[in-house]
């Protein structure tokens, strides 16, 4: 790749990143407004929940004081404006449960969730590649049928049920793995596997179909006719094209893994933000829920942005660049004689 093409590629990636980052504040604003309205328009009085969690008797004077302290005596639009102004200063209020700043509590639990999701993502990528390649290179044979059966079972069972089965087999029957808690590498095995089984099943089937489709493409046939080895044909010519749909699906997989951690953390007593959010839902801890929603939205958007940038780097069709000076763009791309990226 020439230096000019490399600079154009980086410029295109910067343009994609800047466009996505420019839209991020609007997305976070919309999410914050929706979650604020859903929480405050629901049944119940947050002041009563605050007093209950604080161990204070809910007398009329205590309720009135709590409502004034929490700003619930203001009109709804003023409550949101006040919360938004504080959030812009990274002040998301105080947790009803712990009485500590919400952002501090959230950042204490976030590393455990990110570590679990990262391990689950590695397991997903490795297992999806192995199963998808095995099935895609043997279409219609017994490996293909076996992978289809495993994928069908993985999609059919919810992740919490898989978690219970893993605890039953590997902790109670075999006594190989710790049933719960957050500690050494063995503690990651069952939670990461329970979260990733469904995503592995979907991605393995997707990679299998992509491998079958790319096997019939012209450049793969040319590679075989040139006498290249089967390994080189698969890994140098067939697999790169088959990985593009899987790479796109990885962005969705990150969201699925984060959503799965929301449930699995409670099964395995994992001290992450998912378990924190469930406790906040049960106790109507509004400040924690608002911060949790924004934080998970930010993580999801940034993860998808990273995946899109990698996809754009690998696939020039994704990049949309403007014509340079002296270059004319016709119906089918750059004019004749212009070097393509």
From TrEMBL:
Output the InterPro entries linked to this UniProt entry.
Answer: BPD_transp_1_N, MetI-like, MetI-like_sf
Q: Which residues form the ABC transmembrane type-1 domain?
A: 110-307
Q: Which domain of life is it from?
A: Bacteria
Acetylation: is it a keyword of this entry? no
List all membrane-crossing ranges. 21-41, 112-137, 149-174, 186-204, 239-264, 292-314
Localization, per the record, is:
Cell membrane
Looking up PROSITE patterns in the UniProt record yields: ABC_TM1 (PS50928)
**Protein's membrane topology:** Multi-pass membrane protein
Q: Which UniProt keywords apply?
A: Cell membrane, Membrane, Transmembrane, Transmembrane helix, Transport
Checking PANTHER family in the record gives: DIPEPTIDE TRANSPORT SYSTEM PERMEASE PROTEIN DPPB-RELATED
Family the entry assigns? Belongs to the binding-protein-dependent transport system permease family. OppBC subfamily.
Protein's recorded name: Nickel ABC transporter permease subunit NikB
Source species of the chain: Salinicola lusitanus
Q: What is the lineage of its organism?
A: Bacteria, Pseudomonadati, Pseudomonadota, Gammaproteobacteria, Oceanospirillales
């Amino acid at each position: 790749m020439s230096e000019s093409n490399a600079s154009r590629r980086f410029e295109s990636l910067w343009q994609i990143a800047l466009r996505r980052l420019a839209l991020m504040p609007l997305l976070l604003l919309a999410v914050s407004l929706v979650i604020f309205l859903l929480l405050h328009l629901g049944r119940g009085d947050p002041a009563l929940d605050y007093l209950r969690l604080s161990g204070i008797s809910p007398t009329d004077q205590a309720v009135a004081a709590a409502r004034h302290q929490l700003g619930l005596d203001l009109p709804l639009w003023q409550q949101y404006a006040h919360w938004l102004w504080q959030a812009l200063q990274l002040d998301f209020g105080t947790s009803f449960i712990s009485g500590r700043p919400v952002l501090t509590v959230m950042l204490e639990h976030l590393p455990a969730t990110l570590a679990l999701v990262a391990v689950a993502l590695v397991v997903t990528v490795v297992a999806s590649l192995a199963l998808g390649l095995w099935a895609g290179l043997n279409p219609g044979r017994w490996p293909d049928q076996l992978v289809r059966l495993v994928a069908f079972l993985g999609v059919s069972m919810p992740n919490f049920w898989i978690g219970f089965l893993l605890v039953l087999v590997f902790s109670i029957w075999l006594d190989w793995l710790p049933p719960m808690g957050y500690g050494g590498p063995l503690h990651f095995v069952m939670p990461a596997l329970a979260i990733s089984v469904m995503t592995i099943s979907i991605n393995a089937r997707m990679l299998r179909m992509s491998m079958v489709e790319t096997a019939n493409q012209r450049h793969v046939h040319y590679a075989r006719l040139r006498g290249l080895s089967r390994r080189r044909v698969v890994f140098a010519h067939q697999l790169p094209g088959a990985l593009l749909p899987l790479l796109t699906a990885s962005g969705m997989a990150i969201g699925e893994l984060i959503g799965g951690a929301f449930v699995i953390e409670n099964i395995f007593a994992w001290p992450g933000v998912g378990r924190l959010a469930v406790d906040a839902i049960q106790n109507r801890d509004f400040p924690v829920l608002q911060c949790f929603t924004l934080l998970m939205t930010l993580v999801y958007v940034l993860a998808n942005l990273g995946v899109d940038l990698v996809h754009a780097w690998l696939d020039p069709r994704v990049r949309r660049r403007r014509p340079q000076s002296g270059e004319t763009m016709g119906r089918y791309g750059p004019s004749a004689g212009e070097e393509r990226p």
